[in-house]
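Weekly structure sync - notes
Attendees: PM, LS, DV (DV joined late)
Agenda: review two folding runs queued last week.

Item 1: First target. Sequence and structure tokens pasted below for the record.
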Amino acid sequence: MLRAGLGVRMLATAARPHRLRMLLMGCPGSGKGTLSARIEQKYGVPIITAGDLLRWHTTHGTELGREAAEVIRSGKLMPDKTMMSLVGQKLDEMGDSDWILDGFPRTSGQATLLNDMLHREHRPLSLVVNLCVPEEVILQRVLDRWTHIPNLSYNPPKTPGIDDITGEPLEKREDDNPETFRKRIESFHAKTEPMINYFRTLRAPSDPSQPLLVDLAGRTSNEIWPKLQHTIESRFDYHRTSS
């Protein structure tokens, strides 16, 4: 749900008036998880995962969890109001801390609800990053993906076909095939392009001359990472480091 960051390298809070409240967006397989983890490790910024929040509430039987469980049992889509309540509660707990929000919002309607709520609380979003990775690169990455390891091309197992951690045979996920991937990409564009266009109309709260949304292009996470570092460090006064 929220993972504590390691290796934090930031200036004192008093010297950092602008908080990093960030969304990281991109197609399935574009490297959002990898890059979020790098931000968490390097800067100590915690990741709030919408899916983990939903699972926690349903597992613990909270009022929101029971409401969500009923929707899941009915086979309906989770209402924006329910997801907004789950996410809003966690963001309230975070107070004035930095954070990365993963898995929410997914539509322009959810984006508007989130942005309005954060502005009412005087804790507006300060950065939205849109990862622009060629679809043919993502397709190969997805086809390489096996359970328990991020990617065969970038992190192959020590023993082919065997999980390094569990010793179990590796199996491809059922949804890792070209047809399913292309459907996921089509669904992604249909749902998120209006949301991305919405964020393009907004300005950074700390400097209205800067856009809230930044496009970062590259073929790999290693290629995008230096650009992401520069964006974060130039806007939020983190210490510059070479790692």
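Item 2: Second target, run right after the first with the same settings.
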Amino acid sequence: PSRVQSSINIDAKVAENYVNEKALKYLKDGEVVIFVGGTGRPYFTTDTAATLYASEVGAEVILMGKNKVEGVYDSDPKLNPDAK
């Protein structure tokens, strides 16, 4: 089983609102939790959200689907050729 949680309001048929306690319960019950919607705050990337949620739930790994990007960078590699 899986759950989708979002930091921004999305149709309940698509995702429920992110609540840390619920995410932890789902994970404890063996469910997969997919976090969407970034942080819900401007100027933060979805990479930032991924690391934030991973930290909050004690994740051991972060799995991200990226389009033409080789991983998590310290800045946008499309804008910064020196991104690491």
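Discussion on item 2: The CA atoms of residues 47 and 60 lie 16 Å apart.
Action: LS to circulate a short write-up before next sync.
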